[in-house]
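Quick one: structure for this chain?
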Amino acid sequence: MTATTLRWAIADGWTVARRDLMHWANQPMTIAAGVVFPIVVTLAFGYLFGGAVKVPDGVDYFSFLLPGMYGMTMLFGLSSTMIAVSTDAAKGVTDRFRSLPMAPSAVLSGRAVADLLHSVLILAGLLLCGLAVGWRPATLSGAAAAIGLLLFLRFSLLWAGVYAGLRTRNPGAAVAIQAMEFPVGFLSNAFVAPATMPGGLGAIAEWNPLSATVAAARELFGGQGWGGDSWVAQHAVLMALAWPAAITAVFFALSVRLFQRLDR
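Got it. Here's what it folds into:
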């Protein structure tokens, strides 16, 4: 790829991303709901259920919960990406883009940029909520690294959403994905320590990709993890890099291949 081709591909990708951002700007209530919902869930778990949850090493439940909710917001983005991609495919928007004299990569890269910016906005709202209830990261550098890992998880799940949207081309199918987001989130260390779960479920929770990112975020924010002694618990940052990298490699390749075969 020449420098000129790359420059046009970036410009076309940003044009597609701006189209998605303009849609959101025209639907402020949708954006507001996306920001408010995780805040409401966080406050509900923290104030209604926090007193009944025992956290390892006597850590304050909000300090334990907030990194878990930061990770959950990244997981919630999977279905939103799938809905957007499948809606464009079902309405023929994707096919019209493909017929235009633009870089083929722009359709997928534009969606990725727009959805990642959307997730940054939602995560920022939840971080402000955490600061409002008294949570504080230990260091700015650690907080920056934790936020980077959270967005890396979102980036990897974004490609899973793109693939699912292109595969189904049916926005209604996203209901099944949305229904699975909370069970996947509950079967992790986002809300409780896996050590409190029955043996088999605890082991699954420890190896959940979401658990790796959440545990690494807790460590980098300066809080406590779940106190596990397993290998994956002791190498949370490494796993928080490995899981999203593997998910991205698999679903990016599948998404590009499927996008190229849409007209066949």
